[in-house]
Each structure stands twice: as structure tokens, then as C-alpha cells.
Design brief:
Elements (H helix, E strand, L loop, with lengths): L1 E7 L2 E7 L10 E3 L6 E4 L6 E4 L5 E5 L5 E6 L3 E9 L7 E10 L3 E3 L3 E3 L3 E7 L3 E6 L4 E3 L6 E2 L1 E6 L3 E9 L2 E10 L5 E2 L3 E3 L9 E2 L5 E4 L5 E3 L5 E3 L3 E9 L2 E10 L7 E9 L6 E2 L4 E5 L5 E6 L5 E7 L2 E7 L4 E2 L4 E4 L5 E3 L2 E3 L23 E4 L6 E6 L5 E9 L4 E9 L3 E6 L6 E8 L4 E8 L2
Parallel strand pairs: 3-9, 11-18, 20-26, 27-35, 27-36
Antiparallel strand pairs: 1-2, 4-7, 5-8, 6-7, 8-9, 10-12, 12-16, 13-15, 13-17, 14-16, 17-18, 19-21, 22-25, 23-24, 25-26, 27-28, 27-31, 29-30, 29-32, 32-34, 33-36, 37-38, 38-41, 39-40, 39-42, 42-43
Length: 445
């Protein structure tokens, strides 16, 4: 400001001549009225003008000295501010202004918990952010300025994915739905076997389907019907989220083993009732347990993929009787049915209580899941003191087949890889100074 001091009638006054200043404020925006920006100048009383209204328009703001810029199309233009500002001539100030395309995001709006999904932003090389990070996370969280993002959804709920470039951004709302639990059932199905294979999933309300019904199809209740040899995916879809299990379909033209089924019942007080969650062992001629399974809610059990030979089928608990439990399995004798009845009038021996493998009880805040499993097992704990816990897995003969040590904090989770173990029933223990957990674990592949 230039000041001129005059003496007039013995008094003094200051006359001001205001010099125009540079235009300050954002130097870019995006196409569309939703991305208007405001610039300003220190002087007042002037007007704003755009060199190319087809790229950006500018209007004088309500506040003197301000201008409101709206992007019309991508490109460059010059914004000019002209003001006499009380001086002898009109002064101008200019700024180069950039208009970008409005950002957009392409990618799915509905996803499944546990999946990784691809999203693409436009224009290229913007910045990605995800909120909340407790539900979804960028697979590459360090390098975020890129055109493509791969988002992993680690939980269920609503997520906002934001792509920012040139001061503008696009937001895509995404819903992460729960994925169904693992599919339980055998990996091999034999056409013609009198033991129909039934598949289950602990997440209710889903729909069963087959990737190739010409090989095998599956009913709404999970029962598989096979038609020819081959590999096929059994699919369980819940809320648009699928779980898959690949199975091999064989015929009796190529003998790969056979199957045994049966039923366990209790004749307590003269009323025959099914025995659920009871362990049944399959013992070879040398007395070795080669396979194990448990009975369902109706007392039924089945064992498949049994090699040729003579075996004894036996419940793990005492007190059961049967006409014969010795069976011979061969290419000409593909199936066997052995039913057991517990007669309490002869000794009245009660079986030991067995926890169902579908819902292993939590002991001292410890949970083992999924159970049954195809090989990957999680151990979750709550409210525990910091310590190391020993993990021991043994088979039904008592032989140790897996050991590990995990670090226990107050609350947390650890993963075990048991994929090298064969299908069958196992015992798993978790022990530390404060934890003593023992449970049954069924591996089904």
C-alpha cells in the first residue's frame, strides 16, 4: 500500500492506492458442478474472466474479490482478475487453471467375505483409500498411487472405497456379505454304492449346485447323484457367495475301494433311540484303526474309500452288540451294512459323553474351528494371560501326528496347517500355564 500524507487545514489524512495482488486458491478442479472451487485476490472491486469458458467458467463471488470456478471439460485455461482498485489504470492478475475428468471407480458393489476383488480408477494414477479398514484393506497398502487396486475383504459390513485425483474423488459403496462355511463331505463319490453321499454346510439357507450335472448333480438337501466318471465342483451359494468342494466321481468299472454304513441305537428302558456323535472305528486284521467317523443326529454313519480286505467295525464305546462286525470288502462285495444296538439290560454300560465335532465346546475361552475341517484349523482365545501354548494333535491310536507352539496374548487367533494329515478323527490339545483344552477334531477331505 502506498500512503500519501497531506496537510489540509491543519489536519492530516491518509489516501490509499491499492495494488492488485496474485490470485490465490485451488489451481484445479474436476468436471461438474459438484466440484466448484473459490479463488480470491487481496484487492476488491474487480472482476474475473476465463480465457476458455468451454473448459471452465468463472463468476464473481458474493464476497468482494472472490471468484467461483466451475469445470466444464478437461483441459487448461487462464483465469484473469481485473481491477482498477482506485488507481489510474486497470491492473490484472492471472493464474493457470486445470480441469480434470471427474474420477470414477469400476468394480463390484457386492462382494464375499474373505475374497480379493479388483477395482479400477479413472483418470489414471490416483490415490486409493478404504474405510473402515476393519472390514476391507488394500492388498498393497504402501503403494497407493495407482490406477488399479486389489481390495481384500476381511469381514462383513459396509465399506467405502475412495479414489482421489486432482483434488476430486469418487466413492464406491460396497457391501461385504458373509461367505458360507466349508463344505463337509467325501472327496470321492462312487456311482452305484448303496451309501448315498450327503454334503453339509454349517451356514444355513444356501443353495446347492454342481459345476457339471452331466458328471454329478446334487439335490436341495445335499445328496449327490453321479452319472459318469470325472471331476466336478459341488457348490454351496449363500447370499451370492459360493463355497466349492472338488470331488472325484468313480464307477465300479474301476475298483477304488468300497463303503460301509450302519446305525447305532440305544435300547435304554426298552425304547430304541439313535446315538448321535458316537465314534465308530474301522479296524484291519492286524488290529490297526485305519479309519474313523462319527454318527449323525439319526445315529447313522458311513465310511468310504475302503481298500479291499477283511475288517472289524466297532464303536469306540463299550456296551454295543451286533450280529457280526467282521466284514469283507472286495470288488465283488462293494458295500456292507453293520448296525449296532446298545442293550442296557446286559451290564447297563453308559457311553462316555462325546462332544459333537460340529460344535466343539469352548473351554476357558478357547475355540477350535472349523470342525470338521479339510486341513486348515484356527484356534481363537479370549481373556488369556500372555504365555506360550503347546499344541498337540494325536490320532485315534494315541500316536502324536502334529506338534506346535503358539504365542498367547490376552485375545487373539492362530492358524494351524494340518493338510498333510489323512481324513479321520483326531484329538487336539492346547495347554499352557492357564489353559487346558482337549477336544475332538474331524478331518474330512
Amino acid at each position: 500500500m502506498k500512503k500519501i500524507l497531506l496537510a489540509l487545514f491543519g489536519a492530516s489524512m491518509t489516501l490509499a492506492s491499492y495494488a492488485i495482488g496474485p490470485i490465490t486458491g485451488p489451481t484445479s478442479t474436476c468436471v461438474g458442478g459438484g466440484w466448484k472451487v473459490t479463488v480470491s485476490d487481496v484487492s476488491t472491486g474487480g472482476t474475473y474472466k476465463s480465457s476458455n469458458p468451454l473448459v471452465a467458467t468463472v463468476t464473481d463471488g458474493v464476497v468482494p474479490g472472490t471468484g467461483v470456478i466451475t469445470g466444464v471439460a478437461p483441459g487448461y485455461c487462464t483465469i484473469t482478475y481485473s481491477c482498477a482498485c482506485g488507481g489510474p489504470s486497470v491492473e490484472t492478475a492471472t493464474m493457470t487453471f486445470i480441469v480434470n475428468d471427474e474420477p470414477t471407480i469400476t468394480g463390484p458393489g457386492t462382494v464375499c467375505d474373505g475374497g480379493v476383488y479388483h477395482y479400477k480408477g479413472y483418470p489414471n494414477d490416483g490415490q486409493w483409500t478404504v474405510s473402515p479398514t476393519t472390514i476391507a484393506q488394500d492388498v498393497d497398502p504402501v503403494f497407493k498411487f495407482t490406477t488399479n487396486a486389489y481390495i481384500k475383504f476381511i469381514s462383513t459390513g459396509a465399506v467405502d472405497i475412495r479414489y482421489t485425483i486432482g483434488g476430486c474423488y469418487a466413492v464406491k459403496a460396497v457391501t461385504s456379505n458373509p461367505s458360507p462355511m466349508c463344505i463337509y463331505g467325501p472327496s470321492t463319490v462312487k456311482c452305484g454304492c448303496s451309501c448315498p453321499e450327503t454334503y453339509t454346510c454349517t451356514s444355513p439357507g444356501g443353495v446347492w449346485s454342481s459345476s457339471d450335472p452331466s458328471i454329478a448333480d446334487i439335490s436341495s438337501s445335499g445328496v449327490v447323484s453321479c452319472h459318469k466318471e470325472g471331476c466336478v465342483d459341488i457348490i454351496y451359494t449363500l447370499g451370492g457367495c459360493p463355497a466349492k468342494k472338488k470331488i472325484m466321481v468313480t464307477t465300479h468299472d474301476h475298483h477304488h475301494g468300497s463303503c460301509i454304513s450302519g446305525n447305532l441305537c440305544n435300547n435304554s428302558h426298552g425304547s430304541v433311540s439313535p446315538e448321535s456323535d458316537m465314534e465308530v472305528n474301522f479296524i484291519d486284521a492286524g488290529g490297526n484303526i485305519v479309519m474313523s467317523t462319527i454318527t449323525d443326529a439319526s445315529g447313522n454313519y458311513s465310511l468310504t474309500d475302503i481298500p479291499d480286505g477283511t475288517y472289524t467295525v466297532s464303536p469306540a464305546q463299550d456296551g454295543y452288540s451286533t450280529t457280526t462286525s467282521e466284514v469283507n470288502i472286495s470288488a465283488t462285495n462293494l458295500t456292507a451294512i453293520v448296525n449296532f444296538l446298545k442293550n442296557t439290560n446286559s451290564g447297563r454300560i453308559s457311553p462316555t459323553s462325546v462332544a459333537g465335532v460340529h460344535s466343539v465346546a469352548s473351554t476357558q475361552g478357547i475355540t477350535v474351528f472349523p470342525n470338521p475341517t479339510s486341513g486348515n484349523v484356527n484356534i481363537k482365545w479370549e481373556n488369556q494371560s500372555n504365555d506360550n501354548a503347546a499344541i498337540v494333535v494325536t490320532d485315534v491310536t494315541g500316536q502324536t501326528v502334529y506338534t506346535s507352539t503358539i504365542a498367547i496374548t490376552q485375545a487373539g487367533q492362530a492358524a494351524l496347517d494340518l493338510n498333510n494329515l489323512r481324513s479321520g478323527l483326531y484329538l487336539i490339545s492346547v495347554k499352557s500355564a492357564n489353559i487346558s483344552y482337549n477336544g475332538r477334531l474331524l478331518i474330512s477331505k
